[in-house]
Design brief:
about 350 residues; alpha/beta; 2-enoyl-CoA Hydratase, Chain A, domain 1; 12 helices
């Protein structure tokens, strides 16, 4: 009995060590793979027509009688056969395609890294009759970042692909810089549109530092290498130059908007104000009051609609952090079984 007990303990220790070694090997391999794939990514393509049909079928299953369900299934089968027959006919008219892209913008326009890959993919396969729909949500951000995002959309215009921009919530400032590139702009009634202006601010701690006898030295070559600073003493000439740069940026912003949307009264809309969608229509900032959902329903009746997403693998550290967060939340729910969890 003593021998069996010792043997069992030895076996348990051995399996534990082997398990630990396997975990380390898998972790290292995953990290190496993540590093290799971090710059590659892949496209995800979803057929919107099929998704909409599945949603309708699921609802019909609950609403229709057995006889009506049978009739609907027969009609669907007949339609599928017609589509299959048309696809095999080389002389049949080719159905138009709509490629749906999403841009959810932050202050740095981080989503532009995926947008540029999606647009490059579409440009390689698109036909003249195809259309790109951009579902845009952004309150703006850095000038150079949103300038690049708008330039990506100009690639579509330069290839004469129809670009429709939809705004369900907000496209302001840099977001509208992107939206104005579209051939048509659609917006929900209470979406926020406009804010064609430039803002810049920074704190200055110079007086506080001097009060505590702290000196800050800043050396530059060039009178305006630095205009306003956080720690140094700001001058009137520096302030004037800073305001001049803001005005120049605003002028470039207005010029870009007017070039892409010449119907605007730029003096009236480029005041930095924003408007709701219903108001923006009267100012010609948009072309139609309509949500992205309704527009895609319209297009699905006449074209094949595809959602295109470019995904990059998440780093191992991010995946582990997310898993740890889930475990911690699960532990909290076990310790405090409440119907409402507050973070």
């Amino acid at each position: 009995m003593f021998f069996l007990t010792e043997y069992g303990l030895f076996l348990a220790k051995t399996l534990t060590w082997l398990g630990a070694v396997v975990v380390i090997i898998v972790t290292v391999a995953s990290a190496a793979r993540a590093r290799r794939e971090s710059s590659q990514g892949h496209l995800e393509i979803r057929h919107v027509n099929q998704r909409l049909s599945e949603l309708a079928d699921a609802l019909n299953d609950e609403l229709l009688s057995p006889a009506e369900q049978k009739k609907a299934a027969a009609a669907r089968k007949k339609q599928d056969k017609q589509l299959e027959k048309a696809a095999k006919n080389p002389h049949a008219a080719v159905k138009n395609r709509v490629f749906v892209l999403d841009f959810d913008g932050d202050i740095q326009a981080s989503a532009v890294s995926a947008l540029r890959e999606e647009i490059s993919s579409v440009l390689q396969v698109a036909r003249e009759t195809d259309e790109v729909v951009l579902r845009l949500e952004s309150g703006g951000g850095l000038v150079h970042a949103y300038g690049l995002a708008a330039s990506q959309l100009l690639r579509l215009r330069e290839r004469r692909l129809k670009l429709t921009v939809t705004i369900d919530k907000v496209a302001a400032s840099g977001g509208y810089m992107m939206a104005c590139v579209g051939d048509h702009i659609l917006a929900a009634p209470f979406s926020i549109v406009g804010s064609i202006g430039v803002v810049a601010q920074l704190p200055n701690f110079n007086r506080l530092l001097r009060k505590h006898d702290i000196d800050v030295e800043l050396h530059t070559a060039g009178d305006f290498k630095r205009t306003l600073t956080v720690f140094g003493e700001n001058t009137d000439s520096g302030r004037a130059k800073f305001r001049e740069e803001i005005e120049e940026t605003h002028t470039l912003f207005k010029r870009f908007v007017l070039q892409n949307r010449p119907v605007l009264d730029i003096g009236k809309v480029a005041t930095g104000e924003h408007w709701f969608g219903s108001q923006a229509l009267g100012l010609k900032l948009i072309d139609r009051i309509l949500t992205s959902d309704d527009y895609l329903l319209e297009k699905a009746s006449e074209a094949e609609v595809y959602e295109i997403r470019y995904r990059r693998p998440r780093p191992l550290s991010e995946r582990l952090s997310q898993q740890l967060t889930r475990l911690l939340l699960a532990g909290r729910r076990q310790l405090r079984p409440s119907k409402l969890d507050l973070l």
